[in-house]
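Review form for a predicted model. The reviewer records the input and the model, then writes brief findings.
Reviewer: anonymous (R2)
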Amino acid sequence: MQGRVQGVGFRYFVSERARELRLVGICRNLTNGDVEVIAEGARGPLEAMLASISHGPRMASVDNITAIWLPATGEFMSFRIASTK
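Model under review:
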């Protein structure tokens, strides 16, 4: 995600929504100011996640989302906030 997405609780917002939707994966800040989300789960919940993060929390301003749909890797057991990449 690009926009005002760091310092506004975006990762916490994504993490809570992922848990509600029973998705696994990670989200982390990138050094360029963007946020990266990797999520795995059923197509419907993934689409709901994408809709949620297109708005983000109240103080966020999402300007652009690049979504790449790939087969699940199975490497995630839960959804977590990761350190900056």
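Findings: The beta strands are 2-4, 24-29, 35-40, 61-64, 79-81.
Further findings: DSSP finds two helices and five strands in the chain.
Recommendation: see findings above.
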